[in-house]
Amino acid sequence: MRYIFILLFLSLGLSALAQQNIVESLQRNRAGEGTVTIHQDPEITGLIGNIHTGNTTGGEQKMLKARGYRVQVYAGNNSRVARNEANNVATKVKEEFPDMPVYAYFQPPRWLCRVGDFRSIEEADAAMRRLKVPVFLKKYLLFVNKLISPWTNNMEELLHPEWSAEKIEQLKGHYQSILSLLGEDVEREGLLKTPERVAKAMLTLTRGYEQDPHAILLGAKFKEEYSQMVIVKDIDFFSLCEHHMLPFYGKAHVAYIPNGYITGLSKIARVVDVFSHRLQVQERMTLQIKECIQETLNPLGVMVVVEAKHMCMQMRGVEKQNAITTTSDFTGAFNQAKTREEFMNLIRHNR
C-alpha cells in the first residue's frame, strides 16, 4: 500500500510540475513576436514556447502563422506506434472536447497531435487548462485508482470541481429522507448509493451557478472589423424546469452583429451551457443569453431563439409528447423585421 500511495503522490506531482512549467513558458512568451506553439506534453518540455518567426518555409509554420496558437498534447517518433498513438490521442480529445479542432499529423521527424486554432495566447492558455485534467491528471488518477481499489474511494470527484463534499453530504441526507417518505427502503442494495449519485448529478446539472458567462466571452474577445451577422445555430442544451425540476431540452440559435469586436464561436455555445445548467424557465434563459452577449460584446444587435421540449408536459400534467415551445428575444438591429427574417431563414436552411 505504501508504494501505491508514493506512486499516486509522484504522479500528481509530475502533472502539477508539467503544468507549472508550461504556464511559466506562456508568461515568458506573452510579449514575444511571431507565433507561439504551446506544447502540453511534459516529455517534450524543451519545445515549450518555441517562437516561429515565419522565416522558415515549412508548411507547419505557414499554418501556425495563419491560424495562431495551438496546444500540443502528443509528440512521438517516426514509427507506426507513434502514428497510432497520435491518432488515439486525437480521438480521445475529440470525445472530451468536441468543440476543439484536433490535428494529428506527421512533421518530420515526429508524429504530433495538436489542438485548437486559437487567435490569442490567452485563449490557448484557457484551453490548456481545460485539457490538463483529461489528458494528464485523469490518466494518472484512473491508473492509480485501478491499483488501489477497493482500498480507497473513487477519485472521480477530483475531476468535478463543482462537487463539494459538504454539499454532497447535505444533499444525501435530504434525498434519503425523500426516498423514505416515498415508501422506499433506503437500506436495500439498489438504493444504498442512490442519494449520493443524485446529489452529484444535481450539482453537475446546476454547475452554471458557479460559472461566469461574461468572463467566458471576455476570454476570447477580439477586435475585428466585421459587421455582418454571426450565427451559431442548433446548440444542443439540457436544463431543469424550476417549477417541477424535470428536464427540458432542445436547441438554441444565437446571432449577433459585431460592433468592432467578435468572440470565439465556442464561447456562444458555452454561454448557453452556463445558463442552461441552472434551474430555469425557457423564457428567462432566452433573455439571459441575449443580455449577456449584449452587455459583454456591445454588438449592433443580438437575437436568440430557443426551441425545447419540456418533460413536465410530457411525463405529467397534459402529457403531450410532441409539443415544442419556442421563445425569442432580440435587441438593436434585430428590431427591424427584415433583419429578423434573414436570421430566421438562415436557421431554417438545410432543415
3D structure, described in words:
- This protein is an alpha+beta fold.
- The chain folds into 3 domains: 2-139, no CATH class; 160-205, GTP cyclohydrolase I, N-terminal domain (GTP Cyclohydrolase I, Chain A, domain 1), CATH 1.10.286; 214-348, GTP Cyclohydrolase I, domain 2, CATH 3.30.1130.10.
- The protein has helices at 2-29, 59-67, 80-96, 121-148, 165-181, 194-205, 213-218, 265-276, 282-297, 311-314, 337-348, and strands at 35-36, 38-39, 51-52, 69-75, 102-107, 110-118, 221-223, 230-241, 247-257, 261-263, 279-280, 301-310, 325-330.
- Strand 5 (102-107) and strand 6 form a beta hairpin.
- Helix 1 packs antiparallel against helix 4.
- The protein is globular, with a radius of gyration of 24 Å.
- The termini are far apart.
- 27% of the residues are buried.
